[in-house]
């Protein structure tokens, strides 16, 4: 491994750690955030947007920033993304009310989108195909270490120093990668340098996607349905435009002509749609229903990422020799089993049982994620690596947003826009179980999508 490869792996690994650490730690802190803003009329639905606003901003910026990075340079965009991410994290810590917190979370999400769309692309650019599964496995392991430490350290920080301390810590973590980029990551990667940028396509894509996601999460209202329809129409127009112009913002034809790429992305979208809300829901269940404090909640929730971190490198290496669709499909099936069990949560469900199921789920997550990422990045030409990274990141973040959208929609149906108080705990438990039922049904669809993708090694 040469100096550039080592530096790229270090930066990509840190990048892979910070954002999931932030996401998982904030999920644990949500009840404390509600308590802090209770006098301002915060409710369950608005509380869910503290998590979702970040994800939505990251999701809508991934594809535009992935293409922009291909033209102007991925290292530049990665460094600027971290600066925006860090500054907005500090502003989140200083938020005087929930509306400013939501605004700064959106800015933080745009920074996250710039990070997501470039880190993996740089990593894939500097390693040969036969080593990608191994290094992507290491990067995915960093994701899981972030998920592992997020609930635990987030719970401790929230318990002893309050929820604002989380964003202060995230700010200091976020300033490290730009320094490493300037000092050690030499060179630049701009495989599409000199090509034009589709600004009109970006202006069409971003509001359409926002309308789609926000409309879905407010579907029980008439305006939600109108926004959903408008978002679908806007995205259809975006796809039509991308197929017609010479230098598109996004290579839609990759989804049409490349079966491995298309169905690997579809499997990622379904998997994250079915799983991301897990920590959000269990944080509510453990703190409201079981009465645990943030510290103990974080300790229980680390069971899943422990297994993920242990087995992801192995799964990544296996996918260099065994077809990724086989390994990923087994992982999706294991995930279905764990989520289906959680759809029967009750008042007397043991915390130890929950930790055991989370260990089981973590193994399924590990088998799915690294091989699926290997399939996505290994199925395209080098000049499309930025687009592939942006696409895979978009599937991940859109899946996370859809997962939160499903949870938010079901919470609003069962509980309405009311604060989570003890008299509503039975309704909260019902909404949690119904959401897990939907998640497990999505996994069944995901298994078929994963199996149908075709063979990566045969196509290569």
CATH architecture of the largest domain: Up-down Bundle
List low-pLDDT spans: none
By CATH's scheme, which homologous superfamily of the largest domain applies?
MFS general substrate transporter like domains
Count up the domains: 2
Number of contiguous helices: 19
Q: Main sheet, how many strands, which sense, barrel?
A: none
Order of helices and strands: HHHHHHHHHHHHHHHHHHH
Regarding quaternary structure, what we see is single chain
Mean pLDDT: 84
The CATH topology assignment of the largest domain is Growth Hormone, Chain: A
Strand percentage lies at under 5%
* Beta strands, count: 0
Coarse morphology: globular
Radius of gyration: 21 Å
**Helix-residue proportion:** over 70%
Structural class: mainly alpha
The CATH C-level class name of the largest domain: Mainly Alpha
Question: What is the CA-CA span between the terminal residues?
Answer: 24 Å
Summarize the structure in words.
There is one protein chain. The model has no long low-confidence stretch (mean pLDDT 84). Helix 3 (74-93) packs antiparallel against helix 6 (164-174) and helix 3 (74-93) runs antiparallel to helix 7. The chain is built from 19 helices and no strands. The protein is globular and about 60 Å long. With 460 residues, the protein is mainly alpha-helical.
